[in-house]
Predict the structure.
Amino acid sequence: MNVETATETVDPAQGSCPAPLTETERVLLGHGSGGQLSASLIRDVIVPALGDATKLAGTDPRGEVHGSGGATETSPLEDAAVLGLGVVDVVVSTDSFVVSPLFFSGGDIGKLAVHGTINDVAMMGGDPLGLSLAFIIEEGFPLEDLRRITASVGEAAREAGVPVVTGDSKVVDRGSADGLFITTTGIGRRLPAARLSAALARPGDAVLLSGPIAQHGVTILSAREGLGFDGDVASDTRPLHRLAAAMLDAAGGSVHVMRDPTRGGLASALNEIAQASEVGVVIDEPAVPVPTPVAAACEMLGLDPLHVANEGCLVAFVDPGDADAVLAAMRSDPAGRQAVRIGEVVADHPGRVTARTLIGAERIVDMLIGEQLPRIC
């Protein structure tokens, strides 16, 4: 966490006592990056204040805090929580969307809100049943844009087969909300074969990726800064619940971890899992699919695609004996047609992720400390 410190200079000749230390702390954009600052915000500020309320809670370093109810296998690094209600296990997740700009190639804030929340439920093995939707609208926001975004929400929900069942709207003063913010909550029923947690990766597990990375982050950056990549690159935002269900149908308990690598990109997701499971992860960097226009944009801008946000792919840790079956199931679903195996879990260097490069060297893949691109979702 960034700490700004101010002190008064002491003149020894005057014999004066130093002024009291003045310390101020401020939230930075980097605290919403999905990287190390986000993790520190959860660990050092939010969780200690909640106290006993977090004893059975999952806390996501990307900014969400989720209670895990009676689900003892839930890790403190999950996208959603599992509530054991006796007859059925319920999966619930809440997320907020503040993306800038509101409209971009391949989607908008409405579609992103629906897909993002469905995917968080799916990553814990949940079959999404319904969504709640809350709008925070700035005074003066064009009604035409609101109609367009609301229509996009409805279309995305219908295509996913997950209805919006309740909601709310509030209007705030000009300058208080930057147009429109959306908060969504998703609820689902955990599939019988699902026992997923960031803490369940095991040495030997295969690391599978459902498709190309870094498309969403490059799209947002291009739209925001007018970089002109929009004609070649579009956001990958899409629902992943059907893909996740197909994977679980293929191998059940052999799928140990699922995660959609949104803020902080694939690098953050892999590091979170490695740390939660106390294992090492090794990936083959050339095996990670990066579309040519995205790779060119990242090279031009000095970005590592592993750190760039995604909204329509997932990474999974799977028992090696069933990896081929799960990979085949992934490729049978439109959201996983380009699925690949990108690495494996090792017992060495627990909590650390490394990548084998094209020339045979090995480099450390760390989480970003601060923000690379704020307001990404």
Summary: The domain at 206-364 is CATH 3.90.650.10 (Phosphoribosyl-aminoimidazole Synthetase; Chain A, domain 2). The chain has two domains: 58-190, 206-364.
